[in-house]
Write a structure and sequence with these properties.
Elements: H1 3-32, H2 39-65, H3 68-92, H4 95-115, H5 121-127, H6 136-140, H7 162-179, H8 181-205
Helix pairs in contact: 1-2, 1-8, 2-3, 3-8, 4-7
């Protein structure tokens, strides 16, 4: 393999090392955020971190061994990540879609609360809210406010409903994520370009 390919292998493995570290950090962030972030976002972080770490390890092994199929699989995973980032970048600007997602999440939990009292506790503690649209939702089903509706050391329940609170939180998270999306997109695109080049070189060597 020529000097350009050798240099590209070194650069790509260095980028994979960074990707693996970022994957571990994202998993750690998801773990720390378990009690404070929306469940859907925590799951997303776990999946993202795990995929990044797995892809980085697979890429390093395939590139070091110049193994075509391992490197090709790694390249496909990176391509899938690139496509998902492009879709998420477009989706992040659709505030109505984000609000609809948050609303559906709370409504599912509220329906569960009606059948299983206590189902809303985690949602209310996470978003600092009470009821689906407000505290009166509990009065409408003839139930007292649960402890999760109250601020600590107070006797007044949160006056905001969980749909409004969840929408606000989801928008904050997605807007924050979108600030770094272009950098992540560019980084992933560079990795994909290098990986694709090496896959073609490894294939010709077979």
């Amino acid at each position: 393999m020529g000097c350009p390919s050798g240099a590209m292998k070194c650069v790509l493995n260095a980028m994979n090392a960074v990707l693996a570290v970022l994957g571990i950090l994202v998993i750690a962030l998801a773990t720390v955020s378990l009690q404070t972030a929306p469940p859907a976002y925590v799951i997303y972080l776990y999946v993202l971190g795990s995929v990044n770490f797995f892809a980085a390890m697979l890429g390093c092994c395939g590139i070091c061994r110049e193994h075509f199929w391992m490197t090709a699989t790694y390249t496909v995973i990176i391509l899938a990540s690139l496509v998902s980032q492009i879709i998420r970048k477009a989706y992040a600007f659709d505030s109505d879609a984000i609000k609809d997602f948050a609303t559906a999440d709370v409504e599912r939990t509220w329906l569960d609360e009606i059948q299983n009292p206590g189902a809303m506790d985690k949602t209310q503690e996470t978003y600092k809210c009470c009821g689906k649209t407000g505290p009166n939702d509990y009065a409408n089903i003839n139930r007292p406010y649960p402890a999760s509706c109250y601020r600590k050391m107070t006797t007044s329940p949160y006056d905001i409903g969980c749909i409004a609170a969840a929408q606000k939180k989801f928008l904050e998270i997605f807007n924050y994520s979108s600030n770094s999306a272009w950098g992540n997109l560019a980084y992933t695109a560079i990795i994909f370009a290098f990986a694709f080049y090496l896959v073609m070189r490894f294939r010709r060597k077979q």
